[in-house]
Specification:
Layout lengths: L3 E10 L10 H11 L6 E2 L6 E5 L6 H20 L4 E3 L16 H10 L1 H4 L5 E7 L3 H11 L3 H8 L4 E2 L2 E2 L5 H6 L14 H13 L13 E3 L5 E8 L4 H23 L9 H14 L4 E3 L6 E3 H11 L1 H7 L2 H14 L2 H12 L2 H12 L2
Antiparallel strand pairs: 1-3, 1-4, 1-5, 2-3, 5-9, 6-7, 8-9, 10-11
Helix pairs in contact: 2-9, 5-9, 6-10, 9-12, 9-13, 14-15
Length: 362
Amino acid sequence: MRTVGVEEELLLVDPETGEARARSGAVLARVAQDDVDQDVFEKELHEQMLEFATHPQSDMGDLGAEIVRCRKEAARHAGKIGCAVAALATSPLPVSPAVGIHRRYQWMEEQYGIATQEQLVLGCHVHVCVESDEEGVAVVDRVRPWLAVLSALSANSPFWQGKDTSYSSYRSRVWQRWPSAGPTEIFGSAQRYHQRVADMLATGTILDEAMAYFDARLSRNYPTVEIRVADVCLHAETAVLVATLARGLVETAAREWRAGREPADHSVSLLRLAAWRAARSGLTEVLLHPAVMRPAPAETVVRALLEHVGEALADSGDLDRAQESCDRLLRRGNGARVQRELLKRTGSLRDVVVECVRHTQT
């Protein structure tokens, strides 16, 4: 059974006004005082962000329980300094992002300017273990067409600087401002993958290997494929669904590789269009069907993903739970839909944030 770990980035907000607060250093100081979660929480690019990482889990129920626990612990630590945490992929209210003082972050701000200053976006990264770099690159090559579907399921960033963007995942559009971000061509081997990263480093455009911001990549620190397309999900259940489907995609891709099946030869241009469509539509309109790269209803495409990974999910015992979770998500809508419905009901972005603070721990 492949193990899975999840990294989530949470937004620090004022519990009364809903405004983002640059207090990650103070929260981490409280964590250090407790001396229990120091290996779980860490800083991110902006001071309004707090990241946590779960331990590798083979059982999705255990993974879900740990995500909920980490979210509640983040809320507890933040609460001690008068903050709250919200699983929102962008701040609905206007914000002036504060770049952290770490040397790496200062280099990024100097090199990339406003693109760094505006990167107050919060994602969910899923790590799925692989046996080798060769298997990992074979997986990266074969999951490419399906990643936009994960983006649509997780979409949770409709608002930017106090305005509706008309996107379901505006986070993903902001993320594309990094020079190395986005879908990749087919690598074909681990040697070609590593050579491509080395060539990128040699340009001086990125600081290190960790800045190869591919949609799916080999982890620098763990024996995993890291899938990086998802918004941080409003509900923990959705994060577990994304992780479940990610593991299903990795296992399915590895089986295809071992069986000698070639990856779908979709161009990067088409993959970028699929990613844009998912960001724009979420689950409300059409997506590009990964098999043919033509428009199809979002629900049809989600069902196609479930069918594609169905055998792997059945073998891991996750199929029924994944189907039920997909059904609930399609009925309720993703985080973007929930946020828009909250705004329609309350008429206040402040109330949207306050309500999403509650959703974050459920």
